[in-house]
Amino acid sequence: MSMVLPDGYILDIIGPFHGTKNDASITEHVLRTNNSLKNRIEDGDTMIVDRGFRDVVPVFTDLGYEVKMPYYLEKGNKQYTTLQANESRLVTKVRWTVESFHTRLKKSQFFSNRIENQMLPKLEYCIRIISACLNCYRGAIVQNYNSLESQAVAAAMKDRKGKCNTLLALIETGKTNARQRWSEIDEANIDFPLMDLDDLRVLFFGSYQIK
């Protein structure tokens, strides 16, 4: 189990664990037995987790931490509400550094090759050493989190979180039905927004969470 900071630095990594253990049981075990880890976390800190940790959310809450996790689709529902989908995107946007760190870890030469059986007792030390080397020599994954561009993206995501899904409204009212009577338009009478190069970069190359 790894604890990754928002900028991509690894705070701690513990394991490996048996394959029969899930994320929730591993987390509960670590939080209840690792006192040094508790000393690095303060009350009110936010834990960004994936859906595999849903069974351990009460443990985080009891310890005084705030938990952010993508929504689960409730039984009987075919899709998320607009607010649920937008809030899940916010979690994904912050949590991508965890996946990026694991990609770095797996690309190391040690893990790219077959690991011999005699190395298994030392595997925990190898993981921690490689993680420390990534911190030291590769640095943060997010280099410009205080830049104006990053702040603008964050502000746009927070602003759009509560906006209505206009496309869903059109679908529910039947206005996108193929049997509807369509009207012809051309470039002269369409209200298309003016976009500069920065707008185009965000639209085609930026984070999908703000589209």
TrEMBL record:
Cofactor or coenzyme needed: a divalent metal cation
Keyword annotations: Metal-binding
Source superkingdom: Eukaryota
Domain DDE Tnp4: 3-133
Keyword Metal-binding tagged: yes
Cross-referenced InterPro entries: HARBI1_dom
Alphabetized GO MF terms: metal ion binding
Name of this protein: DDE Tnp4 domain-containing protein
UniProt source species: Didymodactylos carnosus
